[in-house]
Design goal:
With 55 residues, the chain is an all-alpha fold. 40% of the residues lie in helices and 0% in strands. The longest helix has 18 residues. The chain is elongated, with a radius of gyration of 17 Å. The termini are far apart.
Length: 55
């Protein structure tokens, strides 16, 4: 099942304004869902779940 139309996938023909708006929307959605992601489980971030900024 295709979720995006061919127009949605055609990045090379988007204007700078359309591309900026698409990026801003994606970034906003990513930030909104960031806290619901699981904690890191590998690498240098093992067992780190402190989501508050350091003072």
């Amino acid at each position: 099942m295709q979720m995006l139309s061919n127009d949605d996938l055609n990045l090379k023909d988007m204007t700078d304004e359309e591309l900026a708006a698409a990026w801003d929307l994606w970034f906003s959605l990513a930030q909104t869902t960031n806290d619901s992601g699981p904690p890191y489980t590998h690498g240098v971030f093992v067992n780190v779940d402190d989501r508050s900024p350091s003072s």
